[in-house]
Predict the structure.
Amino acid sequence: MGKLTTGTFATYVEELTIRTSERYQIQCITQDVERIVRESGIDDGLVLVNPMHITASCYVNDLEYGLHQDIMQWLEKIAPCHGIDGNEGEEYHHHRTGEDNGDAHLKRQLLGQQVTMPVQHGRLHLGTWEQIHYAEFDGQRNKRILIKVVGVMKS
Amino acid sequence: MGKLTTGTFATYVEELTIRTSERYQIQCITQDVERIVRESGIDDGLVLVNPMHITASCYVNDLEYGLHQDIMQWLEKIAPCHGIDGNEGEEYHHHRTGEDNGDAHLKRQLLGQQVTMPVQHGRLHLGTWEQIHYAEFDGQRNKRILIKVVGVMKS
Amino acid sequence: MGKLTTGTFATYVEELTIRTSERYQIQCITQDVERIVRESGIDDGLVLVNPMHITASCYVNDLEYGLHQDIMQWLEKIAPCHGIDGNEGEEYHHHRTGEDNGDAHLKRQLLGQQVTMPVQHGRLHLGTWEQIHYAEFDGQRNKRILIKVVGVMKS
């Protein structure tokens, strides 16, 4: 049997700012999301975690640095920074606009844009190994992550 | 600090119909989603944008035509229309059913199925460059996109 | 014109347990999700379907066994079990921890982690061919899938 919760509906939104030291970098943000869920006063519902930029991903996976390295190497193999075929001189069409981050737009689609996670008892309702991450593919400047909680207020 | 909103909860759903002129085509649908959010009378919450077909994607990325071209070329490289290895004669198992769109089912998983975006002040709450797109991989016929808004009604 | 629904807000959550007989296996879970939606008593809203494990995917696509086979072969080509380049001896960094499932963490990102589907009239609101699947990449033990329904209670 499942668990039913009713009460006053509310939404809560906060924009989190992150500036990575590297152009390509993965950072765990579970604690930040947990803090915002707690501050929201929402007891039960969902939380959307969405980068407000199009060259970054919010994803859930293992907080293990070897895996972070594997993910970045894998993304570079599948969506290389030097054009679709990975050869210099065969650049992305997107670079004709003066941009140099064509790969970042593809990497973010491959890893996934966003996650919506469950909230219960005023906390993230996670499996043992689920950790929320922010993956940046065009960093070294301020980026925003939108965190939006929706659900039943604490009574 | 974040922003809390309470009020009467509501949902609003509309199915949007799209028919692309090409088999493979990317189309920006931000304006359509924005219109439906406005018509919903919902002031604050979330909007789900989900293709009701399994050979298409709704995704958020740059509205830049060079990038659209890069995305399609990249998807064709990673999930080729002529079978997993890209060779004619090594077709998808799916084609034994008489279908010819095996690649489309994979491309939609690679690019991503759906997005859930935040709504605030009765509008999409987007980052500067976030645009909602529909990517079709088996078009030239009517397809439906489900747009569902959930949240607090305008008071 | 869309359809507006208002009423008492509720959430309902249930954890579904699955144990696949194979390490890599795809299983359709539409009926399970449908049952939980029905039991929730929620008439209209959204349902989140999220694996609580980081080596599995919940995704929506065709219930066609040829396609299931194509998906697994494609995932193995793009994220091989023998390291990023598919060569034995060039293992994932993640394996230095003693794990042997580096590929599973990548396959789940490629196929997609989770889906949020619409609920209407107390049922899943699906397109003709949309079926919810669970894809396991490190199975043969109990795994949990979180199913969370949010929306308007039946009046």
